[in-house]
Design goal:
Elements (H helix, E strand, L loop, with lengths): L1 H22 L8 E2 L4 E6 L7 E6 L4 E5 L4 E6 L6 E6 L5 E6 L3 E6 L9 E2 L5 E11 L2 E9 L4 E5 L5 E5 L6 E6 L13 E8 L3 E8 L4 E4 L5 E2 L5 E6 L5 E5 L3 E6 L5 E7 L4 E7 L4 E6 L4 E5 L5 E5 L6 E6 L3 E6 L3 E6 L8 E3 L3 H10 L10 H13 L1
Antiparallel strand pairs: 1-29, 2-3, 3-4, 4-5, 6-7, 7-8, 8-9, 10-11, 11-12, 12-13, 14-15, 15-16, 16-17, 16-18, 19-20, 20-21, 21-22, 23-24, 24-25, 25-26, 26-30, 27-28, 28-29
């Protein structure tokens, strides 16, 4: 019995490697290829229509100009994977959460390493920054970790100001409530941020200009999913979009006490969600390798982008298009206008496509050339 299982497992492994090898050759989304897995992406606010920062498993962060593919800056230092990125309130410093349990930082212009923030006991999975006041200047770094804690840091001094311990499992993402924070007017008195964990709980925190922190309604965290919540994103209305390992993305309505207003059944783990305000769409992506585009108002699936050949880890909207990054080592850009459809599967055929994808049916059997068979053998040998 074990021998049969082992043979079946080997056959499946070969089939999956074959599938990825073939799919890796596609150019959907105009791929920009990097030398290691890409684990996170954020927009560059200094060039919001065409530049992003990415985090790599090799320990590097990069700034990439999407239109040209130019890797205009590389930030080195860590030897472990980077999981998350944030820019300082003035954009002069890039921060990266790392598997080595610390947060690294660099001068964005000179690329020289700056302060390293150490205090967590496990992977750092999320980072964000905010300015609590302009006089005196109070810039704060917030980090969430697999150790189930959130640490509040002074960016200028590097001192740990608070350690928040309400989460019972690893913290996976952080997000600032935009209705409590205006980066151009930082003397609002208090800011609210949200945190999500692998125990499906979403918690809310209030931090004042004096860097005092308290949890909001600690006995009643938001529970909208069945399992891990990977991503938190606010839209312009102040509603919260979430992405979860339960296979769904949801819109939690502020007006209705953070209850589910819209549910998007992506299927499989959903790693990221992005809201295209001007385009009127929501984009989801995750383990099934697809980007799915949904009509924001109705929740209807309108488009599927097919190009990545490994799990998609992050999404960011850049004025009429969405940028996706994956552990396949590529960054891809997809137009959100109806006429920009390369690599697109239309909703009407989605069920058939999904079935063919999992069953290997629909006439998609691949016959390898002799050269491709040699390449595949080399890949298998390397693994």
């Amino acid at each position: 019995m074990k021998e049969v299982y082992s043979k079946n497992q080997a056959a499946h492994s070969l089939q999956e490697t074959n599938r990825k090898h073939i799919k890796a050759k596609n150019n959907h989304g105009n791929p920009i290829r990097l030398p290691s897995k890409i684990l996170a992406v954020i927009a560059d606010p200094s060039s919001p229509t065409d530049a992003v920062y990415v985090a790599e498993s090799a320990g590097n962060a990069r700034r990439i100009v999407v239109d040209t593919g130019e890797k205009s800056a590389i930030y080195r230092g860590p030897t472990a994977p980077l999981t998350s990125l944030a820019l300082s309130p003035n954009g002069a410093t890039l921060f990266a959460g790392c598997w080595d349990k610390s947060i690294w930082s660099w001068d964005t212009r000179t690329r020289s390493p700056q302060r390293r923030y150490q205090g967590h006991t496990d992977f750092v999975k999320a980072v964000l920054t905010l300015r609590l006041s302009s006089s005196p200047k109070t810039d704060i770094l917030i980090s969430g970790s697999s150790d189930a804690t959130i640490i509040i840091w002074s960016i200028d001094s590097g001192k740990k100001l608070h350690t928040l311990q309400s989460h019972l499992r690893g913290v996976l993402d952080l997000a600032i409530d935009p209705l409590t924070y205006n980066p151009l007017d930082t003397d609002s008195g208090e800011v609210v941020f949200f945190s999500a964990d692998s125990y499906r709980k979403i918690r809310r925190w209030k931090i004042t200009s004096g860097a005092h922190v308290e949890e909001i309604d600690s006995q009643n965290p938001i529970v909208a999913h069945e399992t891990s919540v990977y991503a938190l994103r606010f839209d312009s209305d102040g509603d919260l979009w979430t992405a979860s390992a339960d296979g769904t993305a949801k819109c939690l309505s502020r007006e209705h006490g953070w209850k589910t207003d819209t549910e998007l059944a992506h299927g499989d783990y959903v790693r990221s969600v992005a809201v295209g305000e001007e385009e009127g769409v929501v984009v989801t992506a995750g383990r099934d390798e697809d980007l799915k585009v949904w009509e924001r108002g109705s929740g209807n699936l309108v488009r599927v982008f097919d190009g990545h050949w490994e799990e998609v880890m992050g999404l960011v909207i850049l004025q009429g298009r969405v940028v996706s990054v994956s552990i396949d080592g590529t960054l891809r850009t997809w137009g959100l206008k109806p006429e920009e459809s390369r690599g697109t599967r239309q909703n009407g055929k989605q069920e058939q496509i999904d079935e063919e994808k999992h069953d290997g049916g629909g006439g998609n059997d691949v016959v390898l050339t002799e050269e491709e068979e040699r390449e595949l053998a080399e890949i298998m040998a390397d693994e």
